[in-house]
Amino acid sequence: MGLQIRRDTNALTGPEFNRMHRRRSGRTIAGIAGGLADHLNVDVLWVRLAFAALAAAGGVGVIVYGLLWAFVPQQDADAEVAPISTKERQQAIGLIALGIGVALAGGTLAGSINGWASAALVLAVVGAAIVWREADERRKGERGALVRTLSGIALVVSGVAAFLLQAVGAYDQPQFVIAAVVAVLLGVAAVTVPWWLRLVRDLGDERRKRIRTEERAEIAAHLHDSVLQTLALIQKQAETPREVLRLARGQERQLRTWLYGPTGYSRGDAPPTHASGPATLSEAVEVACGEVEDTFAIKVQQVVVGDCELDEKLTSLVQATREATVNAAKHAGVAEVSVYAEVEPDRVNIFVRDRGKGFDESTVPADRHGLADSIKGRMDRNGGSVRIRTAIGEGTEVHLEMPRSTASSRNAGREAKA
Amino acid sequence: MSETTQDTTRKVRVFLVDDHALFRAGVRTELDSITDEVEVVGEAGTVGEAVAGIAAKLPDVVLLDVHMPDGGGAEVLRQMRQTHPAVVFLALSVSDQAEDVITVIRAGARGYVTKTISSQELVRAVCRVAEGDAVFSPRLAGFVLDAFADRPGSAPISDPELDLLTPRERDVLRLLARGYAYKEIASELFISVKTVETHVSSVLRKTQLSNRYELSRWASDRRLV
Fold this sequence. Notes:
The complex is a heterodimer of chains A (418) and B (225). By secondary structure, chain A is α+β, with helices and mostly antiparallel strands. Chain A contains 13 helices and 5 strands. Chain A starts with 9 loop residues before the first helix and ends with a helix. By secondary structure, chain B is α/β, with parallel strands linked by helices. Chain B has 2 domains: 2-132, 3-Layer(aba) Sandwich (Rossmann fold); 141-216, Orthogonal Bundle (Arc Repressor Mutant, subunit A), CATH 1.10.10.10. The chains are: A alpha+beta (418), B alpha/beta (225). The A-B interface holds A 1-4, 10, 260, 262, 267, 280, 282, 299, 301, 303-309, 338, 340, 342-345, 351, 353, 397 and B 18-20, 23, 65-69, 71-72, 94-95, 97, 115-116, 138-139, 141-142, 145-146, 149, 151, 174, 177-180, 220-225.
């Protein structure tokens, strides 16, 4: 069995789809260098060196680091990680200090920024880093965490204030107000980034969860309405195997249509349209066969090759098919009837076959109208034909053939003449 | 293989793969009780168990469920086909969706039957695939006919040897889809049962190897003629 809804996303979470994650344990600041090293399969030392070099080049490394921190998700809490050695940690801290130091020195020497202002910036960046690191931990209500977060914020505030005083200078100038407002806004933004990101991620998770719940509710409702009801009926009718079979088949067909049918559950996009009967030949044949299955408690094995829109002629063809199937169900004395329909460009062939008693056409009593009227008459009136092959004990096969006169082919003919 | 042909009374050794223990038990009792021709030598409920079990037991035929966690029947086929070419797979599933049927056939199964098949027919199907033939349910025959149909707007044929059915193969498939047994097809077309089997095997080969668009990417919407 194993009716799986085929919307699973196994393909995306498979082992070959390798996403970058930040290391959770064994990190120095945010685990980005480690994560990047895991992802690129190189030694972490090289990544750190690259970051330090980039940081020296006008602070690019710091910005890249910050962006990765914001956008790369953290490793799962239960993922296995090798602990890092003290030597490696010392090396990392050394490299960070070196990177920042070179960046500062470079900036000051080049004269692009004032030494004090850059020191203030570093102060702010370190403060932001402390706040972000605490946000990563997701520990609530712990005293140390609160203290660390607050001290981080304090560092950012004092860094921003110092920067303002040093870089802009006298606070009685008008541009000082604007600079102050911008700097404070940037500071607030930098400090609150982790919370914004978390908010967005949580919203996405919640939405997904809600959709899943709704879907589950829909499936449960459907199962309750159909499957459970049928199972209850089956238990009541347990003494009559024929009735049980009929119920089981009917339910199976219904569930299949719901799951896989053209307007069914797994198609998803189209809303179910039950109101307006079948629109195509395959649906019409399916409905007709289903009715016979339900009424006579037999199995109707149906195969339709190709498909086309239903028109008046084809509706008659399906009705004739239904009649032939009913005949087989009533008279052949078998449990299974095969219906095969094939749509060709110029006609539709349908075969209804059973392996039952068979009959001698000449001995059919004159008062039996089923074959004569509802099958032959119906087909003749619409320009189709019926052929019957049967013999006593050999089963019966009714071959119904209906030429197609689709509107499109008629139009094509008219256009050709004009 | 030579062993099977020499000793025709040897039982066909069958391995069951299905994630529903209840269904496995049912098939096992059915197969054990109605015939001496087949013998169930093992069963598995997951892809991993199946791969290990088949490698250990080396059965003649594996009855394979299509829908299972971790990739289903197609995954078992993918892992076993290369390493154990002598093991034959017969897909057995509740689903008769074209996507499922065509997928396992193209992954290497020698046949496809639905779980509502009668026990006698299941035994016959098992014996037939064990002898190297293919087993097409009427539904599968219909799908293959559909996929190989020549329609305006079909993709161009790149390899006529694989991408087209011969008229005879088409006739055989049509009769299969109409519910005819091999013997009936043979007498209907005035050919031997052996020839019918050859045609069906050839259709199976084409279904597995052809690059026809309709097969490699089964269109979920049936194309209107």
